[in-house]
Amino acid sequence: MKAILIGLGNIGLNYDLQEPSCIQTHAKALVVFGFDVLGVDSNAGQCDLAQRQYGFQCVDSLEQVPADYRADLIIVASATESHLSHALWAIEQNPSVVLLEKPLVSKVKELISLVQVLQNAQPQVMVNLIRNYDSLTLSLLKQLPNGATINVEYSQSLLHNGIHFLALLIKVFGPVENYEVLASHPAKPLVQFRFQNCSALFRPEPSDTDNRLFAHSDTMILHFLNGGREIHIERADLPAMTLSGRLSTYQESVMASAIKLIKGEQMDDSFAIAREAQWLIHSVLGD
């Protein structure tokens, strides 16, 4: 199988270079699953690093991609402001699957443009919402009874980091029925999202990296700490337990799902979930 990886930055290449037991980048996941990879990045240093580390072929722009290079998978992991143009190029190449980083785009008008193009596009489109591919995370949240109280603490911005947990809750609990902005902010509002059987309060945190989800009910308590890398579980009839080292191979699960799509298997529509989450966030922010 062949892949084009657009963007050799942190999620593309860097995050797990010093972590041999982890699979947290697209580059390592592609190598592990045996893809022939063409990397695209204007940073010559990152291209050299990808060539030394994984033996990638690399070019510095999309214009340099050989016209006869037929990829099964194209990953858009470039800077957010470039996502729309790179996504449109990827869709035009008509691979089996296009995998997009979140947020999908920077602005609501760009989201509208992307959705319009995808109405007539052939490739399957995935979004790298890593927790949505983690079977344990999904299973635990589905065990919560109706009426559970959920609190999310997100870093940086609702669009860049809050979207992870919002998309996760949409996947588990269904569409958001309504929301209430309790404290407005251009990037980090305090907002309550209401689902059919529960609600979730999204609270901004001053840290640039700390993202957490707390879920409480009469019979079960779940704490997803450090972005879900540590999970604390309490049930009324069982001893409490804490699982650490979670999500260390999160790109493995995403890549396995991409390969299933390449082979023609049916998967949940991760783009539809990401689109709904991002549309809500733009609405909350007043974009």
Write structural notes for this entry.
- It is a single chain.
- The protein is α/β, with parallel strands linked by helices.
- 34% of the residues lie in helices and 25% in strands.
- The protein has helices at 10-14, 26-32, 44-54, 83-93, 108-118, 135-142, 158-173, 250-262, 270-285; strands spanning 2-6, 36-40, 57-59, 73-76, 97-100, 124-127, 149-154, 178-183, 190-194, 199-204, 212-216, 220-225, 230-235, 238-243.
- The strands form two sheets. An eight-stranded mixed β-sheet has the order 8-9-10-7-11-12-13-14, with helices on one face. It has a six-stranded parallel β-sheet with strand order 3-2-1-4-5-6, sandwiched between helices.
- A hairpin with a 6-residue loop joins β8 and β9.
- The mean pLDDT is 95.
Give the terminus-to-terminus CA distance: 40 Å
Number of strands: 14
The biggest sheet amounts to: 8 strands, mixed
Helix % is 25-40%
Shape: globular
What's the gyration radius in Å? 19 Å
Percent strand equals 15-25%
Query: Low-confidence segments, ≥5 residues, pLDDT <50?
Result: none
Spatial strand order of the main sheet: 8-9-10-7-11-12-13-14
On the 0 to 100 scale, the average pLDDT is 95
- What order do the helices and strands follow? EHHEHEEHEHEHEHEEEEEEEHH
